[in-house]
Amino acid sequence: MKTYNIHEAKTHLSRLIDQASKGEPFIIAKAGKPLVQVTPIDAPPKSKSRIGFLEGKFSVPDDFDTMHQEEIIRLFEGEED
């Protein structure tokens, strides 16, 4: 594992963080004394899929695609009762 002094780490921070995120941790030292170790954080767990979370909570009528068809046509065509 490579060690960088504070000034060098500040100068090349973006590059060092990119390398650490790819699995190459490094140490930051002050006056040659190691202070901190920079390592990648594990990826956050993926959220559970929400597909099907309402299964069984309600039902769709068999005639859903034709429900109130006459009323809808009447409203779109502008006919009055």
Summarize it:
Helix content is 30%, strand content 19%. It is built from 3 helices and 3 strands; from the N terminus they run βααββα. The protein is rod-shaped, with a radius of gyration of 31 Å.
What are the main properties of this structure?
single chain; 81 residues; alpha+beta; YefM-like fold; 3-stranded mixed beta sheet; 3 helices; 3 strands
Helix-strand blueprint:
Blueprint: E1 2-5, H1 6-11, H2 13-21, E2 26-30, E3 33-38, H3 69-77
Protein described:
This protein has 81 residues and is of the alpha+beta class. It has a domain at 2-38: YefM-like fold (3-Layer(aba) Sandwich). Helices cover 30% and strands 19% of the residues. A 3-stranded mixed β-sheet has the order 1-2-3. Strand 2 and strand 3 (33-38) form a beta hairpin. The longest helix has 9 residues, at 13-21. It is rod-shaped. The protein starts with a strand and ends with a helix. 1% of the residues are buried.
